[in-house]
Amino acid sequence: MTTYITTPIYYVNAQPHLGHAYTTIVADTYSRFRRLCGEKVRFQTGTDEHGDKIVKAAENQNVQPKEYVDKISAMFRSTWPLLEVEPDHFIRTTDVDHVAVVQEILQKVYDSGDIYFDEYTGLYCQGCERYLTEKELVDGNCPDHQKPPKEIAEQNYFFRMSRYQQQLIDHIHNNPDFITPERYRNEVLSFLSEPLEDLCISRPKSRLTWGIELPFDDKFVTYVWFDALINYLTGIGYPDGPDFAEYWSVAEHVIAKDILKPHAIYWPTMLMATGVPLYQKLHVHGYWNIDDTKMSKSIGNVVRPKELVDNYGADTIRYFTLREMSFGLDSSFSSEGIVARQNADLANDLGNLFSRATAMVRKYRQGKVPEPAECTEADRELQAAAQTMIRDYRQLMAEFLFHRGLQAVWDFVGVANRYIVSNEPWALAKDPAKVARLDTVLYNTLECLRLLTLVLQPVMPGAAIKMAAGLGLAAGDERVSSLEKGGLWNLLTPGTELQTIDALFPRLDDGKKDAKHAGGKKSKKEKNDPLPEAGGDLVDFDHFQKLDLRVAEIVAAEPIKKSKKLLKLLVKAPEERTIVAGIAEYYNADELIGKQVLIVANLKPVKMMGVSSQGMVLAARTQGDGKERLVLSSVSDMVVPGSKVA
Ligand code: ME8
After folding, report:
1. In the CATH hierarchy, which fold is given to the domain comprising 2-324?
2. CATH topology of domain 541-632
3. CB 295 less than 6 A from any atom of ligand 1
4. pTM (two decimals)
5. Which CATH architecture best describes the domain 334-486?
6. I need a surface site. Which of 6, 137, 294, 477 has the fewest CB within 10 A?
C-alpha cells in the first residue's frame, strides 16, 4: 500500500504562520501514521510563487520578484524542521521542471479544444486573483477580502470547465469520500447545482509578466491557479516518472476551506481535460482564529510557528493543534489553551504515568523489565482496553479525525493510571508472597507505555523517541514503530534495562500558581477568619462551610531532610501548592504520585522544618496489628483536581 499526501503550496507574499503550520502538521502526522501502518509514503509541500500578489509584495520590498520569492520560499522550507515536519519533496512553482509540465499540459488541453480565446468583462478580485461572480459578492465586496472587485474587460484564454460539470457531479455522487468532511462536499454540490462558467486561465503580459508563458501565445502568462494546482503532478514526476506511476492513483490533498473551489472544481475538471485520473481525496479543514478573532496582519495577531516552538516546543504545538481542532470546523487558538493542555494532558496524565511507572521499575526491579506471571481478570481488561484503543486510533486517524484519535489515546492513559492505582504496586512490594504479582503489574504498565509510544509517534515524534529510550528501545524498533508488529501485547523483553530520561513535559506556569488564589474567590476578611474551635460536639453549618475542602492530585513528593515523619508534597488543586504531610512512616514518596487526596485548602500557612505548608492532607488514623497507622483519604473515582468537597 502507498500514500501520497500534499499540503497546498503556500503563497510567498507572506511569511509562514499558524494556519500554514497546522495544515503542514496534519499532513506530516498523517504521513507518519501511514508509515506506522507499514505503507510507503510520499509527502509533499512547497511554495506558490507566481502572480500579481507576489509582484506587489516584491515591489513593496524594492526587490526583483525572483530575489523576493527565493527569500520567502527559503523561510517556509526552514520552518518545517522546527516543527518536526519532514516532507519528502518541497516543490516551487519557479522550478524549471514544473514550468515545463505546466506548459505541456496547457498545450495538451489547447490542442484538444478545451482552451479558447475570447473577450471577457468581469469583476476581478486582486486578493483572490480571480474573477468573482455577482452571486459571490457580499454587499458588493469580495467576502474574503472585504473590498469591491474591479471591473475588467480583456481578451483572454478560457478553459472549458463547463464541459466537465456533469462528469464532476457524477464523480462526487459516486465517490462519497472524494471531498470530506461532508459539509464541504455539500457546499461543492450546491455550487455545482448552478451552471458552471468557463475559467479564464490567462493574463496579458501588459498587465502581468511574472508567470508561466502560454506555450501557444507568448503575449500571455497563465493564471496562477492553473499553474499552482499542477504542482501536485509535477512533484511526483508527471507524466512518465516512476513516482507518478506509483503515487498518483492514491493522491490525497489537505487544504483549508478558503481554497475549496479551486481544489474541488478547477482541479478535477483540469485533470479530466488532461486525461489524468482524479485525485483520491480532498480533506478540508476549518480556520484557526486567535482568541476568537480572525488572524490578520492589520490586527497584529498573526502567530508565527517559530515563536510557538521557542515558547512551547514542537511536540506540544503538534499535540495541541491536532487535539484542539475538530477537523473541518473553525477553532480558537490561545496561549491559555496550550498551557491547559500541556499541564493536564501532557505533564499530568501522560508524563506522570511515564515517570511513575518507570520510577517503580527502578525502585523495585533495579530498572529492568520484569518477567510477567499469570494474568488476572484486571490484566485481561487492561489488554482489552489497549486493543480497543489501537483499533479506534487506527480508524480515526485514517479518517482525519485526529482530535478523536487522541481522545481515544488519552482515555487509555486514564485506564493505565487507574490500573496502577487499583493494583497498588507499592503495597505488593511490601509483601514477599506477592513478588510475581508485582512483576506482572509492572510489566503490564510498561506495555501500556510502549503502546502509547507507538501511537504517539506520528503526533509527537520527539517525545516518542524519548519515551522509547526510557523503555530501553531504539526509536526504529518495530515494537514502537510498526502498528502491525508492535500493536500486540507482551512484546517487551524481560531483563531489558530502562534508561533514565528527563521529564517528558514540564509543567507550564499558567500565571495562577500563587498560593493566595488558593481560597478561590473568597473575600480577604473571610479568608482570615479564625477556624472554629474543635471542642464542642456539634458545629454550625456556617462553620463547616468555612472549610475549603478539595480534591488535590499529588504531582510530586519527596522526603524532607532530617525528618522521619514528614513528606513534602506538590499538589494540584487546581493551582499548584506545597503541603507538608506527616505520612513518611506509612508511604513512600514515589507511590504517591498521581494519587488524589482530600485537603483542607484554607488553613493558614505554617512552616515545618523550613518548608511552608499551604494546607493539610486529610488521612484516617487507624489501628492494625497493634500499631497506629495513617491512611490517606481519597475519592472513589478520578475527578478534576481542585473539585470541591461538600
Ligand atoms: O491559497 N487557519 O496559499 P496561502 C487554518 N497558494 N489554515 C490556514 C489559515 C488559518 N487561519 N490561514 C491559512 C494559497 N491557512 C495558494 C494555494 S495550492 C495549489 C495553492 C492554510 O498561502 C490553509 O491550508 O494563502 C489554507 O488553505 C492555506 O494556508 C492557504 O495558503
Report:
1. Rossmann fold (3.40.50)
2. OB fold (Dihydrolipoamide Acetyltransferase, E2P) (2.40.50)
3. yes
4. 0.81
5. Orthogonal Bundle (1.10)
6. 294
